[in-house]
Design a protein that fits this description.
two-stranded antiparallel ribbon
């Protein structure tokens, strides 16, 4: 549950009602446009029993520095006239009519801004004509001009929506339903609240918050039922959410059109390349003409791919801030819902649901609370039946659309699979051809190796024959040698036998002495 506390503007002393979620942040004052630093509020006291319908019970209320008299907020005459005129003045960039608030922006104004920025951008690309960046925008036909215009047109719409979003956030700081006027919102106090709201610097056609509160008060004035007012506020919340979603229709169209233009550029480039290729084949005898024709072919292909690339990049660049802005505006609608629940619906008193006595009785008056819930549920029951009928029809349409989408997806997947299968078959044929060529080369190499091995085998057989002959000759020679050695040993054995029968005297002879210079010395 979001809680709010009051804060005086440090510049103009006007009271502001601020959400606790904004503590520590800076916001612009909707009265004087000065910067306001949101302080940290004190911790509120815990509640007991049923929630009290008095808003901001326990929250700190900081009184403004400027003195005030009476119960109503002080609004001077000097400030009322310019404030009212400024609140009722419509912006030239907005498309809202009457008292209805709208998130749409003027397509004419945004288109003029986008066209001016596009011209400036293209003029800035002229010095880069010889580079890739300049050629993408200036030398790729008409498609880059169209995509650039759509991109800057989208940026202009987003900028104008951001400007309106800033005003919406500034209006959230206004104390639309001050407790100084009345603690409870009753039929008798409605005129005072409406008078205060009319004196604010923002009108109902400029702020979702002011428009929502005014419509809720007017409905409560007519129906005099808090339960029906709750139902009406829920319907108004859905209307505001649909308004936000519908304001992005043209941006979604631009995001869709950018890649389509890129594909158109691709078709144009490929067509130009094919036509140039046909002319190059006609002039195949002349090499100079053929070279110029091939240059035209490559130029057409460059146009085809570059336009698609540029369009896809622009589509992505536009999509990101668009999604961020849509999320911000949806959060703003949620903040308005929380503000109305806390500051309007809880304070409504139609006299039939207990009013202020409900908060004073605490948990004792359970029957009153039950009756209020039953009355509210009785109103919601009819609404729920209508919504169930709508949901049934929506469910049938969604089922049909999902089935059609699946059929389209299946057909696209089948086409992609067929293309992939054809590509794989082509790759397989090429690989098989390469493998056949490699096998042929390997067979030729194997034949050469086989012939070489046969030659080596013949040479080995010849060498073996010669070696065998050499071994035979060597063997015969060795046998002859061994026979001669045997006879020699036999003869030696006989000689030694004869010598063994005789006596052999062994005399030791002294060695001859030699002089210093090698001469012999005789024994003295």
């Amino acid at each position: 549950m979001t809680t709010y506390f009051k804060l005086p503007c440090p510049h103009c002393s006007k009271p502001l009602k601020v959400s606790r979620d904004l503590a520590g942040q800076s916001r612009t004052c909707p009265y004087c446009k000065g910067s306001v630093k949101i302080p940290e509020p004190a911790t509120p006291a815990p509640e007991t029993g049923f929630p009290n319908i008095v808003v901001n019970a326990g929250a700190p209320e900081i009184k403004p520095a400027a003195p005030r008299t009476g119960n109503a907020p002080q609004v001077t005459t000097a400030q009322s006239a310019p404030t009212a005129s400024r609140a009722n003045r419509k912006s030239w960039f907005s498309t809202g009519r009457g008292d209805s608030v709208s998130s749409d922006v003027s397509l004419v104004a945004s288109g003029i801004i986008g066209a001016v920025v596009t011209v400036v951008w293209l003029v800035a690309m002229i010095p880069f004509r010889n580079y890739q960046l300049g050629q993408l925008f200036l030398e790729r036909g008409f498609v880059p001009f169209a995509t650039t215009l759509l991109m800057f047109w989208s940026f202009a719409i987003i900028a104008l929506k951001w400007r309106g979003m800033k005003q919406q956030k500034e209006a959230m700081l206004l104390d639309v339903l001050p407790t100084e006027v009345a603690e409870e919102i009753t039929v008798e106090s409605l005129n005072s609240f409406v008078k205060h709201i009319r004196s604010l610097p923002v009108s109902g056609s400029q702020s979702f918050l002011i428009n929502r509160v005014l419509r809720g008060i007017e409905h409560f004035r007519v129906r005099k039922s808090a339960a029906e007012t709750v139902t009406m506020m829920e319907s108004q919340s859905a209307i505001d959410a649909n308004n936000i979603a519908g304001s992005y229709t043209i941006l979604k169209v631009f995001i869709w059109a950018l890649p389509i233009l890129g594909f158109i550029g691709t078709v144009v480039g490929v067509s130009s390349a094919v036509a140039s290729l046909a002319s190059s084949l006609d002039s195949a005898a002349d090499m100079t003409a053929m070279k110029s024709s091939l240059n035209a072919v490559f130029s057409g292909l460059g146009t085809a791919f570059d336009t698609t690339l540029l369009a896809l990049i622009m589509s992505m660049i536009v999509k990101i801030p668009t999604s961020a802005m849509q999320k911000s505006e949806e959060d703003q609608i949620t903040a308005v819902d929380e503000y109305c629940n806390e500051n309007l619906l809880r304070r409504l008193n139609d006299g039939r649901e207990g009013g202020a006595e409900r908060g004073a009785a605490g948990g004792a008056n359970v029957s009153v609370f039950r009756e209020a819930v039953e009355a509210a549920m009785g109103t919601h029951h009819a609404e729920l039946e209508k919504w169930l009928t709508k949901l049934d029809s929506i469910g049938g349409k969604m089922t049909t659309q999902i089935a059609e989408g699946w059929d389209k997806t299946n057909s696209r997947m089948q086409q992609q699979q067929q293309q992939q299968a054809a590509t794989l078959q082509q790759q397989q044929a090429e690989q098989q051809k390469q493998l056949t060529e490699q096998l042929t080369q390997m067979a030729a190499a194997a034949a050469k190796i086989e012939a070489t091995l046969a030659t080596v085998a013949n040479q080995a057989a010849t060498m073996q024959t010669s070696v065998n002959g050499s071994f035979s000759a060597a063997q015969e020679t060795l046998q002859q040698r061994f026979a001669g050695l045997e006879s020699g040993l036999s003869s030696l054995n006989g000689v030694l036998t004869k010598l063994g029968e005789q006596s052999i005297v062994v005399q030791q002879v002294a060695p001859e002495k030699r002089g210093w210079f090698g001469g012999s010395k005789k024994a003295r």
